[in-house]
Structures are given as structure tokens and as C-alpha cells.
Amino acid sequence: MQNASEHAGALAITDARLLLLPVRSLTGHFKWVTCPAVLQRWQADCRRLGLPDGNDFSVTNLIENNKALVSQTLNEQDIFLEEFRFKTQPRPEIDKVIRSVAKLMGREGNEIDKALKSQLTVVNDNMFAHLARYATPVNAHIAIENETKTVKPGALWYEETLPADTLLYTGLVAQNSRKDGNKKADDVLKHVVDELFSDEHPYLQLGGNETVGMGWCCVKVLHRGN
């Protein structure tokens, strides 16, 4: 945007919040895992942003450590997340959660509906906190001496990343430009969405290590009333 200082404060971007965490599973290649606290925060953010999709379900936070809430269409009696075994509890509200989050994934219809019904899993808050802390990829890195082609002394470090297919969401909140006669809030949002997140190239790179392919996200924009 030209003369950006004239539009300072016209757009606020919230923190990216975790909604679905992919976790390795022996009963499938992975499960999308979430918990009541995360879903309640999603509902609160939907209300604040004027999105209706997060408000038509209710998930209890009284889930036992060895239980997992799943879609009514899932036939598995037990599922495994990392080294943990869970007894499944099919619940109708999980199908409402699926309808709520499917639009965020940009793959509405039978494809994503089928995937979420087989993979979406709700565990209790404490178990989700454990998985979010210990079930993410940690990769070791080294640095090489150019002359000797051996590892530099002390050049060993580890990096933790979010796994591929993690679902995050963030809010864009616009207001009229402070300079009279300049862009209105709707124009600010339209400019950002059209320029950065077009249908032809809906991708955004976040964080470091872009040169090794890290941080690439596919962006799906939801508007009020979607």
C-alpha cells in the first residue's frame, strides 16, 4: 500500500491460534486433535469477529484421560495417539465441530468432510497440552566446515516445528483510515485480501527457514456471514 504511514492502525492482526494439531496415530497416518479449551476459544473468537460458525456446538470439558470424543460415523473402538490408547466416545456435537472448522480448511465438500470425520479427535485439556508440548517434530541440525567438510565444533542444535497440516486461525480487524478522505475499513480489508490472499496464490510464508521450505501456509479467508 502506497503512503502506508497515512493508514497506520487501519488493520489489526490477531495472534495465530492453534485449532487442530496433527498427531501421529497407529490407527491411521495421523489424527487432527483438539480439546474443549481450544474449541471454546474458537467460539469466543467467532463471536468477536462476527462469524456464526463457531457457536452451534457445545463440547464438554469433562473428558477422562483415556477417552476421546469422535464423530458418530467413526467405527473404531480404540485409537492411538503417539503412545497413548484412548477409548472412543462417538458424539453428535463432533459432527457440528466438523462443519464449523471445515470452511477454514479451504476444502469444503465430501473430501474434507470425510477426512475430518475419520480424523478429528477431541481429548481433554491436560492431554492436549501434553501432546502440544511433546508430540511436535524436533529436528537436529549441524553446520559443516567448508575446508574440511566436517561438522563445526559445537555446531549442533535442535529446532521444533509445527507438523504439516496444522490448522491455525487469525483475525483481521479493520477500521477507517485516520486521514480524512482515505480508505474505509471495507476498502482496507479488500485490499489486503485481494493483494495477499488471491484465489490464484493463497499462500503465505511465516517465520524463518524459508529457504528450507519451512513456514508455508495455505490461507483461506472467511468473511462475516460466510
TrEMBL record:
Statement: the UniProt record of this protein carries the keyword Zinc: no
Claim: Zinc-finger is one of the keywords in the record: no
Keywords from the named record: Antiviral defense
GO biological process: defense response to virus
Domain CRISPR type III-associated protein positions: 6-217
Source organism superkingdom: Bacteria
InterPro entries linked: CRISPR-assoc_RAMP_Cmr4 (IPR013410), RAMP_III_fam (IPR005537)
The protein's name in its UniProt record: CRISPR-associated RAMP protein, Cmr4 family
Species in which this protein is naturally found: Candidatus Thiomargarita nelsonii
Lineage: Bacteria, Pseudomonadati, Pseudomonadota, Gammaproteobacteria, Thiotrichales
